Amino acid sequence: MSDNFAAVGLLLAFAVGLPIVVMTVVHLLAPHKPHKEKLTSYECGNEPIGKAWVGFKSNYFLYAIVFAVFSVETIFLYPWALTFRKLGTFAFVEMFVFMIILIIGFWYAWKEGALDWM
């Protein structure tokens, strides 16, 4: 049992340590020559017009979040559909409850205006 925890701990330490080591090495070895031209904003080779930091509606993030939530939740339907006959009525009831929660979430997002374009 402790071997499993040791393997998970080792994997966690590797997953945390490797990005830190790589970013440190890149920071030390990468050339750092700031120049006025390099620090300007770039718009397809043209001179930028106005400010580069222009605000835009945050609704686009809501579309992405709602899409990600519903696409991830629908992934759970595939294994259930493949083993539906083996699982029995309890699994059917569980998936029915899952679908009800999914529909309520969709209805709530629609009601709050998260799916309105403008």
For the sheet with most strands, the description reads: none
Helix content: 55-70%
Q: So how many helices? A: 5
pLDDT averaged over residues: 82
Structural class: mainly alpha
Count of individual domains: 1
- At the fold tier of CATH, the topology name is Methane Monooxygenase Hydroxylase, Chain G, domain 1
CATH architecture: Up-down Bundle
Binned strand content:
under 5%
Extended strand count: 0
Low-confidence stretches: none
General form: flat
**Rg on CA atoms, Å:** 24 Å
What's the helix-strand series?
HHHHH
> Alpha-carbon distance between the termini?
55 Å
Tell me the name of the CATH class. Answer: Mainly Alpha
What features would you describe in this structure?
There is one protein chain. This protein has 118 residues and is mostly helical. It contains 5 helices and no strands. The protein starts with a helix and ends in a 7-residue tail after the last helix. The relative contact order is 0.06. The mean pLDDT is 82.
Annotation keywords:
118 residues; mainly alpha; Methane Monooxygenase Hydroxylase, Chain G, domain 1; 5 helices; 66% helix; flat
Describe the secondary-structure layout.
Blueprint: H1 2-29, H2 59-75, H3 77-82, H4 84-87, H5 89-111
Summarize the structure.
The chain is an all-alpha fold and 118 residues long. The chain contains five helices and no strands.
